Amino acid sequence: MFKRALPVAGFVVLVSALIHSQAARTVQDGVFSDAQAARGQALYTAQCVSCHGGKLEGAQGPPLVGDGFVTAWQSQPLSDLAGKIRSTMPADAPGGLTQPQTTDILAHILKVGGFPAGQAELADAALSRITWPQRRAAAAQSATAATAPAGGKVYPPLGTMAQLMRGIFFPNSNLIFTVQTHDPAEKPKPVDAGAQADGFSWATWGAGIYGGWELVDNAAVALADASPLMLTPGIKCENGRIAPVTEPAWIKFTEDTIEISRRIYRASQQRNQERVSELTGDLSDACAACHQAYRDVRGRGQAFDPNDPSNKANRCMARTTAPARP
User: Fold this and answer.
1) Whether pLDDT at 252 is above 80
2) Residue 276 pLDDT exceeds 60
3) Whole-angstrom Cα distance, residue 326 to residue 202?
4) Which burial class, exposed, middle or buried, applies to 320 when counting CB atoms under 10 A from its CB (0-12, 13-18, 19+)?
5) Is residue 114 scored above 80 in pLDDT?
6) What pLDDT does 157 receive?
7) What pLDDT, on a 0 to 100 scale, did the predictor assign at position 44?
8) Torsion of CA 161, 165, 168, 169, to 10 degrees
């Protein structure tokens, strides 16, 4: 019995090794074929070249090669890029590409990007198991330098945390929350001229310029890219107190908001209403966690009362350190 069990054990080890190798593949491992990339090149020339350039260098649209492109996608599986192409491209007819066409174009992008071809074609079922190589140290240094203020000049914050919240976070979060009840792909209803005459509405104005899913894209980007402003040294709360931007809890809440906003953007790029709706719960939880600790603050032993002036006076102090009221 022992001798007969050996082949079975060997088979299990072989299967486990095969699964591990599949899970660990990157675009450096020859995940597409030359023939597939050639088909993708023909499709790219017909559908994509006017926006992204003949050499994928970028034109009206962003470049699809280079360190910046890889850096933007390196934390996501190849399926996320395929999903974006399938759902949002070409810009003048989003959703017009079939899944095989999308995969062929992706093969062309990889080939032009300098990644090696292999024997087998890139299959849709494998995309979620294929990742990107980590960017080189030089690329990381270049990206860091690119984000430094021009000339080293630092601009102190103009507004308070409350103004930042009301100007950026509140309206953009609510645009995202609306996905729970309204499909962004639906055509907007005609705007009532009489309602416009009542006064300016930024929501109505914006909806008339940018499409439904594009509004969600923009809102997610606004949250992700504006969240680091909450860590700006010297930014004040509404009560004049300097925000505790160096406290671990404050930093964690900020980083949570950034990560969730990035996930929402990826789901929005997939035009996935169900997934975005699910993530609104995470966004709400992240906001509530920070609010409970730093905004809805009360003195020790006191219940929170939103109409109590001392609540505003204690903002930007962690709930556990806010002084007890007399």
Assistant:
1) yes
2) yes
3) 44
4) exposed
5) yes
6) 87
7) 94
8) 130
Q: What is the DSSP string of 147-176?
A: TSPGGG------SBHHHHIIIIIHHHHHHH
Residue 61: its pLDDT value, please?
Answer: 84
220 is written with which tokens? 């997610």
**Is pLDDT at 81 greater than 70 in this prediction?**
yes
Q: Are 324 and 299 in contact (CB under 8 A)?
A: yes
- Sketch the domain layout of the chain as residue ranges: 27-129, 156-313
DSSP states of 51-97 = HH-TTS--SSSPPSSSHHHHHHHTTS-HHHHHHHHHHH-STTSTT-S
Which residue, 53, 95, 58, 39, is CA-closest to 271?
95
Query: pLDDT by residue (tens digit) across 150-199?
Result: 667 778 888 889 899 999 999 999 999 999 998 988 876 665 555 555 56
Question: Into which CATH architecture does domain 156-313 fall?
Answer: Up-down Bundle (1.20)
pLDDT of residue 202: 56
Q: Which two tokens stand for residue 221?
A: 């980007």
Using CA atoms, how far apart are residues 133 and 67, in angstroms rounded to an integer? 11
Q: What does the alpha-carbon distance between residue 87 and residue 217 come to, in Å, rounded to a whole number?
A: 13
d(CA 52, CA 46): 12
Rounded Cα distance between 158 and 267, Å, is: 33
Least Cα distance to 91 among 182, 190, 211, 189 occurs for 211
Q: Tokens for 316?
A: 């930007």
- Give the Cβ contact number of residue 47 at 10 Å: 20
- Decide: helix, strand or coil at residue 50: helix
Question: What's the token pair of residue 40?
Answer: 């993708």
**Cβ contact 29:131 at 8 Å:** no
Please, what is the end-to-end C-alpha distance for the chain in angstroms? 80
Q: According to the model, what pLDDT value does residue 141 have?
A: 46
What CATH number should be reported for the domain whose range is 27-129?
A: 1.10.760.10
- Tell me the C-alpha distance between 126 and 79, whole Å: 8
CA–CA gap between residue 172 and residue 176 (Å, rounded): 6
Q: Which structure tokens are listed for 197?
A: 């005459």
